[in-house]
Amino acid sequence: MVATELAYQQNADVFGTVEDLTAHKAKLAELEAKRAELYAKFPSSRVHGDLHIGRITSDGAALITFRLAPAEVPVLPPETAGQRLVEYLRRPARDGGLAILEVRRVDAIYSPSIGMPPHAK
Predict the structure, then answer these.
(1) Rounded CA separation 90/86 (Å)
(2) Confidence category of residue 96, pLDDT binned at 50, 70, 90
(3) Closest among 86, 111, 114 to 101, alpha carbons compared
(4) What is d(CA 93, CA 88) in angstroms, rounded to the nearest whole number?
(5) DSSP state of 74
(6) What is the 3-state secondary structure of 92-121?
(7) pLDDT of 26
(8) What interhelical angle do 21-45 and 81-90 show, nearest 10?
(9) SS3 call for 51
(10) What mean pLDDT comes out for the span 89-93?
């Protein structure tokens, strides 16, 4: 939220306007529901190539993380794995993340954690 507020203060014109607040709120609710659906699917949708198997310890255990975030984002617990991976990938490198998922253009006010607007894909 802080980043959004700073972006708005520096470049208010790129945020556009909301003509119909009710429709806008409905779209946000729809996007939040879609995000929840995708996070729920995440535990069963990854494949072996998505994983990083850490060093095996003497007791036979190994930390399993995501290949995109080795030793940073464990796959367990699976219920929050998708959200934790997205948060790591959005975090700036100076904060220990990769900042791969950056918002490059904003035409309307929306939460980047919900997803990119259709034109940005």
Answers:
(1) 6
(2) low
(3) 86
(4) 10
(5) B
(6) CHHHCCCCCCCCCCCCCCCCCCCCCCHHHC
(7) 93
(8) 110
(9) strand
(10) 76
